[in-house]
């Protein structure tokens, strides 16, 4: 079943001043969204979601990745993903299209990333908040790049839709000054390479 896309959106935020101070190098957050028809809507409990995942995941991943890179080019540093399924679907439907390598690897491979894609998935009506958590694409402990893109689409998702999204950052969060997890681990006497001590 080919993906049915109702609308795509690209949202860009540039921050020039934050916390009473100018940002020396303005930072940028970019979100790419696709509002699609839920391929499992109205079908009751579908045991095997695989066929739609394998068909629609790569197409959505490629489309949204291209939308992001059209804005950031090779300046991209942070990345993440999110989805919202309408009230006529299951959380599993939102997760199905984002928690799969068929989708995520389109983005990872395009930006030569080394970390996993941070994520959120939820179910809600039109206008539900979409939150895309971000982390550094190469270093999961780099706190400067822990950020969240927060937005919504007033008329989506409808009950038979899913919003599928990718997010990215150029630069870390503005005027960051909370250090990184490696400094904390060293100061607490933990092994940086084995923080859980297992």
Quick rundown:
It is built from 4 helices and 7 strands, in the order E-E-H-E-H-H-E-E-E-E-H.
Sequence-ordered SSE layout with sheet pairings:
Elements: E1 5-18, E2 21-37, H1 50-72, E3 78-85, H2 91-98, H3 101-110, E4 118-123, E5 130-136, E6 147-151, E7 161-170, H4 181-187
Parallel strand pairs: 3-4
Antiparallel strand pairs: 1-2, 2-7, 3-5, 3-7, 5-6
Annotation keywords:
about 200 residues; alpha+beta; 7-stranded mixed β-sheet; 4 helices; about 25% helix; globular
Description:
The chain has 198 residues and is of the alpha+beta class. The relative contact order is 0.22. The protein is built from 4 helices and 7 strands. Strands 1, 2, 3, 4, 5, 6 and 7 form a 7-stranded mixed beta sheet that branches. The protein is globular and about 55 Å long. Helix 1 packs parallel to helix 3.
Structural category:
alpha+beta
Give the SSE order as H and E letters. EEHEHHEEEEH
Instruction: Report the oligomer.
Output: single chain
Helical content band: 10-25%
Shape: globular
Uncertain segments are: none
Percentage of β-strand residues = 25-35%
Instruction: Let me know the number of strands.
Output: 7
């Amino acid at each position: 079943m080919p993906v049915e896309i109702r609308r795509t959106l690209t949202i860009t935020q540039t921050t020039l001043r934050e916390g009473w101070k100018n940002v020396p190098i303005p930072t940028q957050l970019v979100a790419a969204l696709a509002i699609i028809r839920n391929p499992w809507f109205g079908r009751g409990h579908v045991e095997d979601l695989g066929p739609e995942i394998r068909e629609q995941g790569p197409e959505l991943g490629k489309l949204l990745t291209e939308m992001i890179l059209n804005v950031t080019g090779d300046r991209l540093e942070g990345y993440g993903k999110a989805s919202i399924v309408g009230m006529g679907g299951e959380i599993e439907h939102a997760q199905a299209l984002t928690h799969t390598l068929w989708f995520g690897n389109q983005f990872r491979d395009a930006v030569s990333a080394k970390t996993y894609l941070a994520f959120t998935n939820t179910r809600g009506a039109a206008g539900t908040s979409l939150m895309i958590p971000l982390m550094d694409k190469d270093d999961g402990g780099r706190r400067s790049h822990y950020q969240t893109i927060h937005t919504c689409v007033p008329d989506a998702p409808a009950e038979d839709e899913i919003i599928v999204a990718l997010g990215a950052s150029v630069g870390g969060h503005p005027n960051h000054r909370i250090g990184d997890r490696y400094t904390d681990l060293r100061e607490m006497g933990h092994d940086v390479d084995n923080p859980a001590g297992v």
